[in-house]
Model the fold of this input.
Amino acid sequence: MTPARDSIGAAPTRFTWTPIEGADLYAIGIWNEVDQLIWRQDNIPATSVTLPDTVRLEPGTYFWTVSALREGSQIAESGLAAFVVRTAP
Done:
């Protein structure tokens, strides 16, 4: 997974994960430290996604998770992974 769990540094621009056997799509969500959803994208056909330029991750702690989907139903979830943005994007 990129960014790696508990990583500290600049705001990531790309998120990657390991494929899950049987998954045909993925969904990703990013939350801030007060559990507010910052960004979500569904129906991702690949194992990576680029954060849109319109999403700005200011310095702070964030959490992200990826769900693996098969025919619209969740078959696996990564669990929350934290990362800390230390410098402005």
Notes: The radius of gyration is 13 Å. The mean pLDDT is 94. The beta strands are 7-9, 14-16, 25-32, 37-44, 48-50, 60-70, 73-77, 81-85.
